[in-house]
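Tokenised fold entry reproduced for absentees:

. . .
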Amino acid sequence: MKHNWLVRPSKLGGLMSKGRGKDFGDTAMKIIQESALFHKYGIEPKQITSKQMEKGTLNEREGMQLAKDVFDWDIDIDAPKVRLFNDFMTGEPDLNQSILADIKCSYSAHSFPWLDTEVKNKAYILQMQSYMFLTNHQQCELVYCLTNTPDHIIQDEIQRKVYQLLKQPKFIEMDMDESFASAEAEAEKQVLNDSIFDKIPKEKRVKRFIIERDETIIWEIQERITKAREIFDQVFEAI
């Protein structure tokens, strides 16, 4: 039995990866297996979460607004996303209006691509090409935004930092109340400095890369999905 499995752009980087001496490596096979389990039994893929991913999701609208302000985009940031389909893929671009764009909210100033002149994450290149494949746009903007960290993540980080500081000799030597108060004050100062970026001008907190449509990559995507579907069918029957 053949299945016309539709791949999500976010999964394409893993699906295109190869293993040693194998066309489909462990990462690609895991994606295929998880998708087969979902389609056959409704078992959702294991959700991997992190504070970085949570901030990226929660700050998406804020990132769009920042990019709109800096680049003077004529867009409606509150327009609902639309799920798109073609014969190979399904996805929801962050912005699919007069421009096609994907927003990435960096977790910290250390992960923001201040000096990068090209996209280093090849999975993002594939994701942007996928969006152009789905929308027929000729270019896609990959936009990194440095936005303030949500308050509840900040508070969690302060508590984590406090317990780290309390293990240091200078805090151990203090009495309990003094050590906790001092550690909390120092932790708050450090975390806020690494989480709130209002002191940096807006135009410095947005970095965009214009990615042009590449028909060769889009053809390679289609070829890969065609091969992956053959394995998907085998896994579907085996599980």
About this structure: The chain has a mean pLDDT of 95. The CA atoms of residues 92 and 236 lie 26 Å apart. The first helix runs from residue 12 to 15.
